[in-house]
Amino acid sequence: MSNETAILPESTELTDGFHLIMEALEMNGIDTIYGLLGIPVTELGRLWQARGNRFYSFRNEVNAGYAASFAGYLTKKPGVCLTVSAPGFLNGLNALANATTNCFPMILISGSSEREIVDLQQGDYEEMDQLNMARPYAKASYRINRVEDIGVGVARAMRAALSGRPGGVYLDIPARLLGQTVDAVEGGNSLFAPVDMSPAQLPAPDAVARAVELIKGAKKPLILLGKGAAYAQCDEQIKALIEETGIPFTPMSMAKGLVPDTHPQCAAAARSLALKESDVVVLVGARLNWLLSHGKGKTWGGAKKFVQIDIQANEMDSNVKIDAPLVGDIESCVSALRAGLKGMATSTDWTGALAEKVAASKSKLNARINTATPAMNYANSLGAIRDVLKNYPDITLVNEGANALDNCRMIVDQYLPRRRLDSGTWGIMGMGMGACVAAASVTDKPVVAVEGDSAFGFAGMELETITRYDLPVTVIIMNNGGIYRGDENSPAHQVSCMLFNPATRYDKMMESFGGKGVRVTTPEELAAALEASIKSGKPTLIDAVIDPAAGVESGRIGNLNVVSQIGKK
Ligand code: FYN
Ligand code: ADP
Ligand code: MG
Predict the structure, then answer these.
(1) Which protein residues touch ligand 1 with a CB less than 6 Å away?
(2) What are phi and psi of 287, to 5 degrees?
(3) For ligand 3, a single-atom ion, which residues have Cβ within 5 Å?
(4) Which class in CATH covers the domain with range 14-189?
């Protein structure tokens, strides 16, 4: 170090790791960081804000990480999360793993302890080999050791998060790097913005021809839209493909609204029939994972051919044979399909059968929604929410829980792309409050979260974050007093492991942070409170008391649960 200082002329201006990291992020279009500060990154947060950038400071890193990942999904730009070392890093890593699983672009930046002490396991402050711990859970992991490598380190993180299949990237920042100095001009020159970070990837012409032939020959084609299609931001192309071919479509949960749920070709309300009876299924940015019964079994009925559009070549055949793989970016693939399918029409026998089922399912569901019950249930409370939200199509809906998730997905229609954020590929609980902050920070528009009371509990303290930033967020708690249900019998001298304290007042919790809290017990009260909170643009929590007996074990995925038969009569 002393040598380096000696060769610098006295008048040379210096910069340091703190400033170069901030400049590199700014150069890459990052203006917002979600995080939680402490040793050794505190000063980075302060300096970041002092430069006029935004910092959303959370109460637990996992929620900051979820916010970053959903911001990444919404903007097609990596969401950045900043944490302290070891425990802070581990909390953030949870969200990074979820981002990678969901194909959301995110960068987790964590401060870390001194390498020479960590590597000899000499017991440093928050000692942990973070880089290696992150590796299995991230799309890529890098450490920047030298101040002159900050430009290339940030560029690599950006490109790894965005290119091909998006994912989570870990960037390890040793404490010492932040304070390292370098000549300011030299440092500035080492930074750059990478060119074309998610380049178009055109599908091969023979792959397009194969897919076109298969789709043209189909008697009962179906398009399945996944959140990859929503992420791709080629909404008009996708709508045009659907409308020009007349093929019915069904959206995966976060693809709802990419084409409106009320579109005449939407077969969501005939989902089982559509999956079972279709003969050619075109997967657009959707994986044949557990959410689609791995493409086999009784969900899918008889013989089926699959066309799959995905940027990740080895996604093909992951569960069943893909008859026409289309490897490329969704916009290029969909536009190639449109050209090849010009003039195609879909059999009205097929579309008519689906439309009939859609109408029947909708009228059955409406009958449930319109049935008054002594205590609110999921159907009539969510029906009230649906009727309010249809007048605010631009609102982002955040949704998690088990029954709260499944019923809300079924009942509440979406009209615009990327307006629904939920538990995603892993079916996680706890993403809701982070997603609310992400949506509010990205859109500057109202956000409504429909939360199971259990799911909300994972991140309840972030109500303070929401009120501190005065975000236009309404959190609705579907409060049935327990996990799945609130009426489970407790064993002698114990409280059931599935129950919560029935005295809980979530509305008062919100009031304690200075937000508005409302408790409602009827669909009418719920609708009025929601309407008022959206209009107010103020942080609000609606504690919606529903029947403790409402809800079923594991929601609609009870088939995945394992139950002991031993000792059962
Ligand atoms: C859908 N449906 C409707 C409508 N929309 N009926 C009437 N009107 C409307 N608008 C019907 C649809 O046809 C289905 O009936 C049913 O409602 C459910 O629709 P959904 O939700 O699309 O279908 P399904 O089978 O539940 O979807 C499978 C799934 C989904 C796995 C993709 O359940 C899902 O995303 N689950 C995530 C669960 C999760 O992550 N939980 C968190 C962990 S909970 P039929 O056609 O008659 O079948 C831990 O315990
Ligand atoms: P869902 O849960 O809605 O079914 P998934 O997360 O399973 O959606 O699938 C999303 C898929 O979309 C991933 O396989 C991912 O590789 C793919 N994907 C994401 N962005 C693009 C893109 N721009 N072009 C092509 N494929 C993409
Ligand atoms: Mg509950």
Answers:
(1) 253, 268-272, 291, 361-362, 365, 402, 405-406, 409-410, 423, 427, 554-557
(2) -100, 150
(3) 452-453, 480
(4) alpha beta
